[in-house]
Design brief:
Elements lengths: L10 H4 L8 E6 L2 E7 L4 H10 L2 E7 L4 E9 L10 E2 L6 E5 L6 E10 L2 E2 L2 E2 L2 E8 L7 H15 L2 E8 L2
Antiparallel strand pairs: 1-2, 1-11, 2-10, 3-4, 3-11, 4-7, 5-10, 6-7, 6-10, 8-9
């Protein structure tokens, strides 16, 4: 759980809800996505914002289904469960805050279950990929991310926040 001292100046400390809701820009090689914050996860949003920008490697988590993930190892963002799920939909960004398995961010492209070698996990859903216009083919690009991670190996990923 994030303590009050860790929230000074944040939307939670000021009572502002929902928190400032910019958008995320996600880049996986030449594939780009926009994602909107999920207002039901204000503490998780605050924790993710402190981590930005995220520059990492995205790997495939084939044994849990059609998903990719960013391993964060022993890092602990100080979160409890909030807006959590074990079955994130394609385009859902969710963080497992660590505990019985390592901390990780899930970025599914199809059906999956958040799990580890010890069993099913629940991850906090903090953002969702959104289309930019009626002709946006983000679902096809997302499947391509999964294909690349599975058949070509780890992919560079960058997550940043854009303004309103």
């Amino acid at each position: 759980m994030v303590g009050r001292e860790g929230l000074a100046g944040s939307s939670l400390a000021t009572g502002r809800y929902p928190p400032h809701m910019g958008t995320l820009r996600i880049e996986v090689g030449d594939l780009h996505f926009s994602a909107r914050w999920e207002a039901a996860a204000p503490r998780t949003i605050e924790a993710i914002r402190r981590m930005l920008p995220i520059d990492s490697r995205l790997i495939h988590c084939r044994w849990t289904g059609e998903s990719t993930w960013i391993p964060l190892g022993d890092f602990r963002p100080g979160l409890e469960f909030e807006n959590h799920t074990s079955h994130p939909a394609p385009g859902v960004l969710a963080i497992y805050p660590g505990g019985i398995s390592e901390c990780e961010i899930f970025f599914p492209y199809g059906g999956c279950t958040t799990a580890s070698k010890v069993g099913q996990l629940a991850a906090n859903h903090f953002a969702s990929v959104v289309g930019v216009g009626a002709d946006d083919d983000w679902e096809d690009r997302l499947r391509e991310v999964g294909r690349r991670c599975l058949w070509e190996g780890a992919q560079e990923i960058r997550i940043t926040e854009e303004g309103d």
